[in-house]
Amino acid sequence: MPVWQITHHENAFTDADKQAIAQEITSLYETIIPRFYVNVFFHPLPKSSFFIGGEQTDDFVRFQVDHIARSIKDDVAERRRFLAHIDAVLKPFIQDRGLRWELNIDDTPFELWTINGLIPPPPNSPMEAKWRQENRASAYEAADA
Questions:
Q1: pTM over cut 0.85
Q2: Tell me, what's the pLDDT at 72?
Q3: What is the CATH number of the domain that holds 40?
Q4: Taking residues 109-124, what's their average pLDDT?
Q5: Phi-psi group of 100: left, alpha or beta (phi > 0 → left; psi -120 to 50 → alpha; rest → beta)
Q6: Do 108 and 121 lie in a common domain?
Q7: Cα 42 to Cα 3, 11, 46, 129, distances in angstroms
């Protein structure tokens, strides 16, 4: 699953903005993994709790992403393409509004991940296809994967 942690000034986004951003982020992954794998969490902070370079600010957004269900291999071109897709998705909400931003992506081992206590099925397996279709996790036997 990708987990997106978005830390921002409390007035940076409306509820409608947050919904749109979450949908756009989910769209980055929906052809690869089940939609319910995508988690997006917004962390609004008051200006009194938001410092960049030691200075209070209200024009900065921080994105921290953990990739678990899939990872980007050591292909530099693939990494750059993915970052360009992210830039295009976020531009209307960040850059076009004059906000500064920073993003990092960490890869977490697939083997150290569960959903509802279940080990997710292998990528591109019939069981993962079932999870994608149902948009939820369900129990399975290893032989079913």
A1: yes
A2: 82
A3: 3.30.429.10
A4: 92
A5: beta
A6: no
A7: 11, 12, 13, 29
